[in-house]
Write a structure and sequence with these properties.
Helix content: 10-25%
CATH superfamily of the largest domain: Gcn5-related N-acetyltransferase (GNAT)
Strand content: 25-35%
Number of domains: 2
Number of helices: 4
CATH topology of the largest domain: Aminopeptidase
Shape: elongated
CATH architecture of the largest domain: 3-Layer(aba) Sandwich
Structural class: alpha+beta
Number of strands: 10
Largest sheet: 5 strands, mixed
Low-confidence stretches: 81-89
Length: about 220
């Protein structure tokens, strides 16, 4: 047997280092039932848009930027031209027993038509006294503020579904006001006196422009 030394591989052999477990290494625990966190609850609110072309007349007192004031003429029957006459069956007779027919009188009246705005038809929170309703109203106020047509105008009608669920206090605290000044004075007095059982107030409410920015910062200033 002849050994050919020239055919032998005399290059040094490199050894591959293998990683050894660290003394401080800790084994990872198995993943246990990962669950998706529940979505945040929201208040259920139904909102519509009102257009000026709907010709909705607003009674009571409301800010001028909410309405377009239109003056119209009406025809009324005069009560006899200011003379001291006796009325009998719709006809007028003077002291000389002369017949004086009633004279038509043109009277000018001002009507307030609601401008483009948002109206809250319905709002209900799945959990009471947790801020969900306030958050929904604030989001609507921000949307209305950037709406070039609505210009921040929001109205609603305070009509409780149940006797114990009057929304008037909720809206009043957020800055909404009744078109009836007496209702505003009554609620303000009840809140000041900390009245427990406040009777349900029914009527139209609106968000004055002076209260809009306060509503957007509700929770910081109140």
């Amino acid at each position: 047997m002849i050994n050919d030394i020239t055919a032998m591989d005399l290059r040094p052999q490199l050894t591959v280092a293998k990683a050894s477990p660290s003394l401080n290494a800790m084994s990872m625990p198995p993943i246990l039932g990962f669950k998706t966190p529940p979505l945040k609850q929201k208040a259920n609110m139904r909102v519509k848009k009102i257009k000026r072309s709907d010709n909705i007349i607003i009674p009571g007192e409301i800010d001028d930027d909410y309405v377009e004031i239109v003056e119209k003429e009406e025809v009324r029957q005069d009560s006899g031209g200011g003379n001291q006459n006796l009325q009998t069956g719709g006809n007028f007779f003077s002291s000389q027993n002369l017949f004086i027919p009633p004279q038509p009188q043109i009277v000018k009246r001002k009507f307030k038509y609601l401008k483009n705005c948002y109206i809250i038809d319905f709002i209900q929170s799945p959990t009471q006294r947790c801020g969900l309703g306030t958050e929904a109203i604030k989001a609507l106020a921000e949307k209305a503020m950037f709406d070039k047509r609505a210009e921040g105008r929001i109205v609603t009608f305070s009509a409780p579904i149940l006797k114990e669920s009057s929304p008037a206090i909720f809206f009043y605290k957020l800055g909404f006001r009744f078109t009836d000044p007496n209702a505003n004075e009554y609620i303000a007095k009840c809140l000041k006196d900390k009245t427990i059982d406040i009777p349900a107030q029914i009527g139209m409410m609106y968000l004055p422009r002076t209260q809009l920015h306060k509503l957007l910062r509700y929770g910081e200033l109140f």
